[in-house]
Each structure stands twice: as C-alpha cells, then as structure tokens.
Design goal:
There is one protein chain. The chain is α+β, with helices and mostly antiparallel strands. It has 10 helices and 4 strands, in the order ααααααβββαααβα. A 4-stranded antiparallel sheet has the order 3-2-1-4. Helix 1 packs antiparallel against helix 2 and helix 3 packs across helix 6. The protein starts with a helix and ends with a helix.
C-alpha cells in the first residue's frame, strides 16, 4: 500500500497536466496530513516543485470549470472555491518546501529536523536499524541527493557515524557542505572480508 507522500509524489509528477482530482487531493492532503505533502514536495528538485506550482496556477481557470464535473460527490464541507484551486495547491506546495534541514548523529541515533517555508517543524529520530527505511519513507534520500550539496556523502557519513562510535558525530545544517566520508583504515583495506 502506498503512503500519502508516495501518492502525492505521483500527483506532482502529473502537475503539468493538472488533473482536477490531483489538485484537489494536494489541497486536502495538506490540510489533513501536511507532513505527507512536505515529504512529496521535498523528494524532488526545488525547481521541479516550483514548476508544479506554476502549472497549477496556470490551470486555475480550467480547474474551476472542470471541478463540478470531475469531483462529483465531494461533500460541500470539503469544497473550497473551485476557482482558487490552482493558487491554493501552489501555496500549499510552496509552503511545504523545506527552508531549513538539520541532520545530527548522537550516539546510536540520527536526528533530522526540518522546518518548512510556512514555519511547520518536523523531527525524525532514527535508530541504526531504522536508518535506511526511515530515510526512504520520509523522502530524505531524494531530498539530500537533489537539494543538498554532497547529500549522498552526508548520508554515507551519518550511516558511518552510527556504526562506528570512534567517528565524530555529524552536525549538519542547510547551507553547509557535507562532510567527507572517512577513509578505510589500513587494516580494512588489507582485509577484504571487513
């Protein structure tokens, strides 16, 4: 079963076509599950996220005309002004873009703290056995790869710091370069089984 963030990621892939149901879902998911939208928006390049917003804004008139036909049975309590759907979805997605991200390792924990443009904080704490799954489910592999200089190195360094207590902890914030991964020791290079 797909998560809300994975479903929204697919809807953002179709943003250029701006299907009414996708735009409606972006708006409603943001209202009900704002972190799911943040994960979907930030698991892509910043330019890609901004282009989705532009597509929704440009399609606004069409969205308003098609809403009554394309969204039958939507309760009135869940309906917004159909002629504001494009700007509403764009504002939700733009507000969900991370303006600050921190990645810290402390002992056997990786802590990721984010703050979106609209000021919403989110904190994830991962144990070593949760690292890979936690990064995947929260779109962090993609976020760091697309939006942080040396993001793949940063992930490697964080993973190494968790498994090797002799390494210094990672203290990274948005705007900093990623640390350089530790090089293998001589004994690790000589012993291929390690």
């Amino acid at each position: 079963m797909l998560s809300n963030a994975q479903i929204l990621h697919g809807k953002m892939e179709r943003a250029a076509k701006a299907p009414v149901c996708d735009v409606f879902d972006v708006i409603k998911t943001y209202q009900l599950y704002p972190n799911a939208l943040a994960v979907a928006v930030n698991a892509r390049t910043r330019v890609s996220a901004e282009l989705a917003c532009v597509a929704w804004e440009r399609a606004n008139s069409r969205l308003g005309l098609e809403a009554a036909e394309e969204l039958p049975g939507v309760p009135e309590s869940m309906q917004d002004d159909p002629y504001r759907m494009g700007p509403s979805a764009a504002a939700a997605a733009q507000g969900a873009i991370y303006k600050r991200v921190g990645l810290h390792t402390h002992g056997d924990r990786t802590i990721i703290e984010t703050e979106t443009r609209n000021g919403r904080p989110y904190r994830i704490e991962l144990a070593p056995d949760e690292f890979n799954r936690g990064f995947a489910l929260n779109g962090l592999n993609e976020y760091f790869y697309y939006n942080a200089p040396g993001g793949d190195r940063l992930i490697e360094c964080a993973r190494s710091a968790l498994t090797n207590p002799s390494l210094p902890p990672i203290e990274w914030e948005t705007g900093r370069m990623a640390p350089v991964p530790p090089s293998p020791t001589t004994s690790q290079r000589l012993d291929p089984e390690r």
